[in-house]
Amino acid sequence: MTLASFAFLSLNGLTLAALLFIMASGLTLAFGLMRVVNLAHGAFFMLGGYVGVAVVDRTGSLLAGLGAGMAAGLIPGVAMERLLLARVRGIELSEALLTIAIGMIIADGLLGVFGGYPKSLAVPESLRGRVDLGFVQYPGFRLGILLLAVAVGAGLGALLTWTRLGAAIRAGVDDRETAQSQGINVGALFGIVFALASVLAGAAGVVGASYLALAQDTGVRVLMLSLVVIIIGGLGSVTGAAAGAVITGFVTSFANAFIPQFALFILFAPLAMVLAVRPQGLFGRAAA
Amino acid sequence: MLRKSWIWAASLIAIAPAASGQPKAQEELRVGVIANLSGVFASSGTTMVNGVRMAVDEAGGKAGAMPIKLFIVDDEGNPELAITRLKAMDTRDKVDVIVGPVSGNIGMAAVDWAKDSGVPVVVAYSAPEDITMRKAVHNVVRAGWSGAQPMFAFGEYVAKKGMKKIVMVGQDYVFPHNQIGGFLKTFCRNGGEEVIKIWHPLNTTDFSSMLAVLPASDAIMYNGAGTDAVAFAKQLEEFGARRGRPLLGGSNFFAVGSLPAMGKTAIGGLSALQYSDALDTPQFKAFRDSYVKKYNEPPMATSEHGYVAMKMVINAVEKTGGKDRAKLIEALRKTDMPNAPRGPVKLDDYGNPIQNIYINEVKSVDGKLLNVAIAKIENVSQFGPYDAKTYLADPPDSRDFPPGKCSDPYYKKK
Amino acid sequence: MNDNRARTMLVVGAAALMLPLVADDYVLVLALRALMYSLIVMSFSLLAGELGLVSLLQSTFAGVAGYGLAILSTSYGWSALPAAAASLLLTLATAAVFGLVSLKTSGVGFMMLTIALGQMVWALAFQWIDLTRGMDGIVSIPAPEFAGLNLRDPRAMYFVTAAIVVVCFASAHVLMESRFGLLIRGIRDNAPRMRALGHPILRARLAAFLIASFYAAVGGILLTWETRVITPVALDLSRAVWVLTAAVIGGTTLLGGSVVGVVIMVTLEAVLSQYTDRHILVFGLILAFAILLLPNGVSAFVSDLWAKRRGRSRETSAVKLAR
């Protein structure tokens, strides 16, 4: 393997990791705080993607598409949390099942509205070229996704470390009951975190559509990858989501190159190893 | 308390008729059409159905004196669902004949069902060869082709053009196996050296890693179609992996519906099929013009095949004067259409067409990308240059058969 | 077993047996599929209702058994019964491994783990093309002949299936009424207490898990003999969610829940597919409503109605699940 191909595969891994991180960071925070796994997360990805792609097709503006995608993730996300999940708050299983139901509705609805033709994002001409990194040339748009993920990570990190809101979220993740007794409005926090996660999912859908086609089962695949990432990284930890995303991205990238026939399955190997050795994930806390 | 159980029992039995479909109507020709209307090959399925509808319209909605009623279902590219829907069309909708399917894996499953049910089936586009070879069934005929049928000529053509080493990236299922099978059998016997086969699962949209380690070769072939194909073509350019090599395709790679998305990179691309986008014959032009008028886009090969399949049914019904099953099957098996849009179509003893094969090159014609025929080979059967017995004596095509290296002893015979 | 339930089961059973006489082929095949799926849903309800664990692996076990049967019958030419027996063993072995990995967790964590494991099996089936033929699926799976009954005939298949389903349900019922059932429900209700009393928690859970996987495997084998095709879609998450939906709609009481839920789902699917392609959307809506309004499922809802009329009440499974 040459240096160029190694660099290439590593960049592939990183850019996939970037996409996964954007998806998984919100998911893991929501779980850490609310003990709810949003199984409709993949559907939000699709929703954001389809809406974003449609807007880009019509207006030619990537920014507009991104905004539309984020809104498309945000609105149903907030609606779902406030109107539906709030009714079964505390009954973990009902919450999870409800997210499954919403996911089904959204995914099938999208199929009905947009049809069965897989869709991808028409990256604007100006962003389509390759960037010369010296030892390798790599598509600029994918590097852009990497930068976006870094920005998201930095933003989340800053939020959690330096703001009161972030402190409240961390307190809620650590120990919800105590946080509540300290006067933190946990209910409002739920809404904010869930909204954040849904916005990120929508954004991921738009940029992800540049190289993953949006089709019937894309939502499930992305959800699955996100679950693998947060299980590996540890539920509730954003750092864990980053670590999990990098591992997943790299394994996928290299496996796709050398054993493409088994690439999907190989992905579960790191998951299995983590579960066997450290079931709470790399950065998670031991099960209560 | 017993009342409740009677309610249960009564409702269970009452549901039974409610789930049944409409009652059998008066004399009409009920045609079940099955295709992929969603998923990786959605464009092929929808265009095939367009062709069927056009044929029905041209015939005034009637086959002989009988009105035609179409039942159109989506198999979603899933063989299990396809069988469920075929069974429903047979038992619930009481169809007289099935037109379709389109994608290869569905075709193989459908043959099994056809054998059990006895319903006449005109396979519109599915191309795995065993449908009209090792698994041939009397009530199943094809309006289309077998995967290897156009590739015999293509393999010879490519080898004679001096491209000795090919790297092939392909979708890992039975139809592409057949395609490269036919290709290799003539490629290796006409001077080729090797085809490096890289298989990937269906529905792969990210080829970045594969392209990072793509071996050197004289040409690149993508053996597949649909959204995977478009993604491959685009990423080949995006990642600069093409390195100036000619791009070859499996028969559906450069399907005219995918060309706009592929863009300039497709120009000069070579493939082989029993259809071409720019044939110079009056019957083709008439077909193409009607299709463009009705659907506002150029016809794909699948459109023409759906059209021909439906015409086969209509012709057979008119010839037999009714829809008696046994007579219908016999008439279908004797199909001989010298003026189909693609050229002459005549079924062989196994139910597969003997027809022209065109070597196509993608060219820009009046600003549109089209497959233009640069060579024509006539009277090609599913066995190509081989005779049936010898061909069938070989094992069926798989990922590894025929072998990719032409130095393999298999190629020494004949 | 109390009189009422016995009478109900008898009447329902009689109705089911009479079906082949009144129904045409199409409805018969639907009823057949319903019977087979009810085994899989029963295996889900057994774990969810009695053990308190929501497992999305039940359809996976059915699929594993189906694939085992398919591969042994087609690639290796095994005859029906040995292939079925081997597939059952294969599924039990898989369940044992998965059980050991996942049964240390519970609640949502357990459910997520079952989702991940199920996807792993799906990925394997999708990609191990040499063994499973990937998306092409395995076709032409031979349907067996039992004592002169050719199972390709839907009527013969129906009687054999009905008999097997009755035996399975009856055995599950007997098991859950036994001491083992008491132990399982005890673990569901108060695991720490059971542990303190010295009961082997993990072993009991594992046993229940294996038993449930057995029923699911039987369902999977019957389904494969009926459709004679198997593809990775059988192992899909959407299939697991279908099972879940049927169980939630029907309610997780053993008999009523599974059968009621499946009959509703199959009938709805058949009726809806004539008018719209969007039946999954409808199922999602129904599932959402069921969770919000009828947390105990249809069968318990109806039972509750009758019970209220007689002045009794029942412990709701929502309370059970919430523990």
Q: What is the gist of this entry?
A:
With 288 residues, chain A is mainly alpha-helical.
How much helix is in the residues of chain B?
Answer: 25-40%
Task: Give the overall form of chain A.
Answer: globular
- Please, how many helices of chain A? 12
Which series of helices and strands of chain B comes N to C?
HEHEEHEHEEHEHEHEHEHEHHHEEEEH
Strand order of the largest sheet of chain B: 2-3-1-4-5-6
Using the alpha-carbon principal axes, give the shape of chain B: globular
Radius of gyration of chain B: 22 Å
**CATH fold type of the largest domain in chain B:** Rossmann fold
CATH homologous superfamily (4th level) name of the largest domain in chain B: Response regulator
Number of strands of chain A: 2
How many strands, which pairing sense, and closed or not: the largest β-sheet of chain B?
A: 6 strands, mixed
Task: Compute the number of structural domains of chain A.
Answer: 1
In CATH, the architecture of the largest domain in chain B is: 3-Layer(aba) Sandwich
Order of SSEs of chain A, N→C?
A: HHHHEEHHHHHHHH
Describe this structure in words.
- The complex is a heterotrimer of chains A (288), B (414) and C (323).
- Chain A has 288 residues and is mainly α.
- Chain A is 73% helix and 2% strand.
- The mean pLDDT of chain A is 86.
- In chain B, helix 11 crosses helix 12.
- Chain B folds into two domains: 29-146 and 280-355, Response regulator (Rossmann fold), CATH 3.40.50; 151-278 and 357-412, Response regulator (Rossmann fold).
- Chain C is mostly helical.
- The two termini of chain C are 26 Å apart.
- The longest helix of chain C is centred in the N-terminal third of the chain and has 27 residues, at 25-51.
- In chain C, helix 7 runs antiparallel to helix 9.
- Chains in contact: A-B, A-C, B-C.
- Chain B binds chain C through residues 1-2, 4-6, 8-10, 12-13, 15-21, 74, 77-81, 83-84, 87-88, 91-92, 104-105, 108-109, 112, 116, 172-174, 199, 201-202, 399, and chain C through 4, 7-8, 10-12, 14-16, 18-19, 22-27, 29-31, 126-127, 129-130, 134-137, 139-140, 152, 227-231, 233-234, 263, 267, 270-271, 274, 277, 302, 306.
Strand-helix topology:
The complex is a heterotrimer of chains A (288), B (414) and C (323).
Chain A: H1 3-34, H2 41-59, H3 62-84, H4 92-114, E1 130-132, E2 137-139, H5 140-162, H6 164-174, H7 176-181, H8 186-208, H9 218-233, H10 238-258, H11 263-266, H12 268-277
Helix pairs in contact in A: 1-5, 1-6, 1-8, 1-9, 1-10, 2-3, 2-4, 2-8, 2-9, 3-8, 5-6, 9-10, 9-12
Chain B: H1 2-19, E1 29-35, H2 42-58, E2 62-63, E3 66-74, H3 79-91, E4 97-99, H4 104-117, E5 121-123, E6 140-142, H5 151-160, E7 165-171, H6 174-187, E8 194-200, H7 208-212, E9 219-223, H8 226-238, E10 247-249, H9 259-262, E11 270-273, H10 282-295, H11 301-320, H12 325-333, E12 336-340, E13 343-347, E14 353-365, E15 368-380, H13 388-393
Parallel strand pairs in B: 1-3, 1-4, 4-5, 5-6, 7-8, 7-9, 9-10
Antiparallel strand pairs in B: 2-3, 11-14, 12-13, 13-14, 14-15
Helix pairs in contact in B: 2-11, 3-4, 5-6, 11-12
Chain C: H1 3-22, H2 25-51, H3 58-74, H4 80-102, H5 107-127, H6 129-132, E1 145-146, E2 149-150, H7 154-177, H8 179-196, H9 201-227, H10 237-250, H11 254-272, H12 279-293, H13 297-309, H14 317-322
Antiparallel strand pairs in C: 1-2
